Amino acid sequence: MLTALLVLIYITPATLGVYHALLYKRDPRAAMGWIMACIFVPYGGPIAYFLFGINRVRSRARGLKRRLFYVGYEVGQRAAVHSGEGEPGKSGVGWRITGQTLTDGNTVTPLYNGDIAYPQMLDAIERASERVFLATYILKMDTIGTQFADALQAAVARGVDVRVLVDGFGELYAWPRPSRALRKRGIATARFLPPRLLPPSVYLNMRNHRKILIVDDAVAFAGGMNISDDHVETDRRKRDVTDVHFSIRGQTVGELAAVFLGDWSFATRGEEDEVPKQVMKPQGDMRCRVVPDGPNEALDALAVTIQTVISAAERSVDIMTPYFLPSRELMGAMESAALRGVRVRLVLPEKNNLFYVHWAHQNILAELLRWDIELWYQEPPFCHTKLICIDNDYTLIGSANLDSRSLRLNFELGIEVFSRDLNAELAAYFHRVIATGRRINYDELANRSMPVRLRDSAAALFSPYL
Fold it and tell me: What main location does UniProt list (predicted)?
């Protein structure tokens, strides 16, 4: 009797797991992996699939957010996006994927490291008169985090609409918990998909990795920088992380506010607020497009955008990312560009904060070298910057890393910027980084010892989940 019960307990969830993977996993490799796990790993396989393999997220968005997140897969859904002539060349890629036209009249300014970014962000909060929306993955309640908390609390006291959205898993990097600390100060704070036992809600994947600060209708800040002392250098401590954040002025600020309000509505299970319908004055000559991405209606928006703009490159592709575990499609786009004579450069941190990611990416770099793609290691401290610059007029900034977790499991944000001036400034930044970096050669990878090669290959097996 007991044996029959144990078999039933094994067969039922395994069957449900196989059924679900067959119907909903679009990648045959992922589907096969999960099916094998459910069948041949009793009890543990179905549990792992329940925790890591199922996308449970469905947005309740409407209005502008619905358009921003529009990435349909059925023919009927795509018809609306493909109708009309659209935009030419690289500028048309994002339009075809999201249905969003480019927004004119913007200025995007790079802010190098927390020493430059944080003072400007804090100054904007201190000047706020109507609203402050802040979304971040990690907010540590250290010296810098406390300064932000003080500024947000002062804004609340002035009658400003202040809302802070922290990721439910990302906040576990900090103690005390930022959500508790901010609520004690009277600041409206929400957590995005927090893990909890009662009632059960275990969202280990599907993190909100976006970093956005919107102040009034005047300025927004976006990129990949979290909020902590790690990004600041003082007389007493060295900087642990380098990064580039961006200030944005102009009409794109309203689109970023729409993304935040959609996430806020999802996290609070409330009705989505209307985006402020104020006509913002042009603040420059840069054209921008917001490209949200997530395991919902926006699935694959950034991945497809990145692959396609690389495929459209004519002269150069410069990529800087902290975590590089690309899909075969992205690898193919980079290799194809190099074979067409496009100069392709990839800059990675020499010392990664996630050692297993470093091991895994070493297993794939030799293939890129085969096609004359330049590979560079940036010297410490750890480089957390995410940049893609193509030719002399296209830049993609935002929060996404080039790995499966980021591009398929997280809620991310990309911003396309069409500007020769911004591209030139960031190209100069690439040159400065490379000038102090170290170029990776084939011999370095080929001469790894057998234990190291086995270690790297084993780590690469788990790259879709790292």
Answer: membrane
Assess whether 128 and 270 both reside in one domain.
yes
Q: Could you tell me if residue 166 is left (phi over 0), alpha (psi between -120 and 50 degrees) or otherwise beta?
A: beta
d(CA 377, CA 389) in angstroms, rounded, equals 18
Number of domains in the chain: 3
Closest CA to 260 of 295, 290, 228, 232: 290
Residue 250, sorted as left (phi over 0), alpha (psi -120 to 50) or beta, turns out to be: left
Inter-residue contact 46 to 271 (CB < 8 Å): no
State pTM to two decimals.
Answer: 0.87
pLDDT tens per residue, range 95-151 = 888 888 899 999 999 999 999 999 999 999 999 999 999 999 999 999 999 999 999
- DSSP code per residue over 291-359: EEE-SSTTTTHHHHHHHHHHHT-SSEEEEE-S-EE--HHHHHHHHHHHHTT-EEEEEEESS-SSHHHHH
CA distance linking residue 153 with residue 272, whole number of Å? 24
- In this structure, are residues 117 and 255 in contact, taking their beta carbons and an 8 Å threshold? no
Give me the domain span that covers residue 15: 2-53
What are the tens digits of pLDDT across the range 298-340? 678 999 999 999 999 999 999 999 999 999 999 999 999 999 9
